[in-house]
Write a structure and sequence with these properties.
- It contains 5 helices and no strands.
- It is mainly alpha-helical.
- The protein has one domain.
- Helix 1 runs antiparallel to helix 3 and helix 4 packs antiparallel against helix 5.
Length: about 130
C-alpha cells in the first residue's frame, strides 16, 4: 500500500519520465536526430545497426510521441492522481508490446525501458492507504 503523498510523487515522476523519453519522437526532425544517436549507441555497444526509418515508421513514431507528450502534460498540469490509474493501464499495454518486440528480436536496449514501464505500471496499480481524519 502506498500513502497518497508517495503515490502523488510516483505518478508525477512517471509523467516527467514520459515527457523526457517521448519528446524526441514528436516531430520528424527530432525523431531523425534521435534515431541517429540511438544507432550510434548501438554501434558503440557492438549491437546491430538499427533499420532505416521508413515514412510509415516516422509517421507512427510521431503519432506516438505527440500523444504521449500531450498525455504527460495533461497529467502534470491537472495533477489528478486518478489519471495515474489510466496511465497504469497504458503502461501494462506498452509493456506487452515491448515484450512482443523483444521476442521479435528488437534491440536489447528495449529491456531497460521495459523494466521502467513495468515498475511504473506496478506502482501506479497499487492500492492507496486511506488517510485518517485529523
Amino acid at each position: 500500500m502506498l500513502t497518497p503523498s508517495r503515490f502523488h510523487h510516483i505518478y508525477r515522476l512517471s509523467a516527467w519520465y514520459d515527457l523526457a523519453v517521448s519528446w524526441p519522437y514528436a516531430t520528424p526532425l527530432t525523431l531523425s536526430l534521435f534515431w541517429s544517436v540511438l544507432d550510434g549507441a548501438h554501434g558503440q555497444l557492438g549491437l546491430a545497426a538499427l533499420p532505416a526509418l521508413s515514412v510509415y515508421a516516422v509517421l507512427f513514431g510521431n503519432f506516438f510521441g505527440s500523444v504521449v507528450v500531450v498525455w504527460s502534460l495533461v497529467r502534470l498540469v491537472h495533477d489528478d492522481p486518478r489519471l495515474a490509474r489510466y496511465d497504469a493501464g497504458a503502461r501494462w499495454m506498452f509493456s506487452a508490446w515491448m515484450l512482443n518486440a523483444l521476442w521479435a528480436e528488437a534491440s536489447p536496449l528495449l529491456w531497460l525501458f521495459l523494466v521502467i514501464e513495468v515498475s511504473f505500471a506496478i506502482l501506479q496499480s497499487l492500492p492507496l492507504r486511506r488517510e485518517l481524519p485529523v
